[in-house]
Amino acid sequence: MQPRQIELMPPQIDGQRVTFRWRVDPESALYRRTEFTLGFPGDIDLSRVPKRLWWDLAFICLHPQWLLLRPCRIRIPLRLSAGERQFWLQLLRNGWDTLAAMGPAEHRGEPLGIRIISGDQDLPRTPVSGSRFGSSFSGGKDSLLQAGLLCELTQRPLLVATTSPLPPLEDHDTARRRHVFESIQQRRDIQFVEVASDFRGLWDNGFAASRGHPIGVNELTDTFLYTASLLAVGAAVGASRLFVASEAEVQDNRVVENRIVQHNHFMYSAATHRALDRLLTPYGIRLSSTTWPLYSMQVQQLLWTRYPDLCDLQYSCWRVPKGQETCSQCEQCLRIAMTALSDGENPERMGIDLPRLLAFAPTFEPLADPPAPSPGVTGAGARAASTSRRLSHMMDSVRRVSLPHLARCLARRSIRRLISRETINLLQDFRRIRKRASRFQRPAALGAREAFFAWLDPDLRERLIAIYTKRFPTEPHEFHVGILERSQALTRRATSMLGA
Ligand SMILES: [Zn+2]
To answer: Distance from first CA to last CA of the chain, Å, rounded?
Structure first.
């Protein structure tokens, strides 16, 4: 097969809008158009962003899509060192090993089939000024906890939200999302910046699946966009210590046929972020995550106990239709609601509609009656292990929900509602669901992953460890040191020649 030619044009800055363009020959059904923009608020001084950083952002946003366009040649007018070409090709290789593992068998072991041909224009990376802290922000439990932590531990952190609708989803367009963005600014001393982009609308989101990789294109690219927005705004406002939340599950990896296969969402694994961190060193930028040691469920538990004045802003459901706060009819809604209920909290605080959720619960396969066969976990990615762990913890949460507590939540402070036929029926149904959840084996208690503490930002590390170990036991080093070492091997492979 003739390799596809992909030519990157110089990023164009026009007022507060930056446009990234490229040409693809022959064209691919992946793209509806081959350009996207990042739009910044008027008070963000883009002249403070190093010119070279815009090129890095183009690579960060676009490179995962090249995995879907192989074999291909990437041409850019800029001069890249051999170490840098090696960096991108190895990061792509790391991604391809995971993508190939979840696709048709014939892809495994194929050469990468991507070349980067650089030009002769020199554009050095220059340091950004300032050392403030900043985080990418969506309102999801991970970024909300990270925002809470940075507000507690640092001075007036920067929070950067990226609004980029992915049709037909409406989660970037809801009134609830506006409410979350406004409220966080009222409740904390932060600098909040919202970046607008048409990036997520430019591809056919089913393209990867049509090629046999059961994953949405957005699952390969979304967080790269959010990271890019954060880097640009951080450089403009003097925030160089930047964080993108990434929980313990995303770090899961294993060896399959001599290759390290990561979680399907390797776009924000520590292996990926810690590699990018090294690439960004010449700018004086540090990229990391506060949440690497915590499991997804612990993120919510810590958010609700440590920051009860923020937890109602949790915005986790991406299936939410425009007029609602959450869909209350998806696995994600069920999981976060059961976590809250089992800890004696009321999930309606974060916009869950409990009656609707309880009507949905028995349609969720593992809770169905008659029992569905042992819930299957598909995909060869390292997500399989974390999916089954997640499920057993969700079932444990269901089992631990107290009926009197659920009744109080359903009553919404009305005696009349409490004794209504509807409430009584819902409680009876839930009692049956709870029984079904007991079919699952009880999981061991979750601990914060001790070995991952070493990855935490050195200025925050001790204080974060104190917060995490006060709330949770630790999962001893030897339980996950293999994951740590494989993750570090991936980072090392990508970065070993940088600066050479
Ligand atoms: Zn939902």
So the answer is: 34
Distance between Cα 327 and ligand 1 center (Å): 4
C-alpha of residue 337 to centroid of ligand 1, in Å: 10
CA of 174 to the centre of ligand 1 (A): 13
Strand-pairing partners, residue 158, are 134, 191
Helix then strand count (H, E) for the chain reads 16, 15
Let me know if 455 is exposed, middle or buried by CB neighbors in 10 A (0-12, 13-18, 19+). Answer: buried
Question: What spacing in Å lies between the alpha carbon of 372 and ligand 1's midpoint?
Answer: 22
Tell me the pLDDT tens digit for each residue of 275-301.
999 999 999 999 999 999 999 999 999
What is the reported pTM?
0.95
Q: How far apart are CA 245 and CA 138, in angstroms?
A: 10
State the distance from the centre of ligand 1 to the C-alpha of 201, rounded, in angstroms: 21
Return the SS3 of 286.
strand
Per-residue pLDDT, 373 = 52
Identify the H or E element spanning 118. strand 114-121
Helix (H) or strand (E) holding 394: helix 383-400
In order of 54, 177, 336, the CA distances from 314 in angstroms are 31, 10, 10
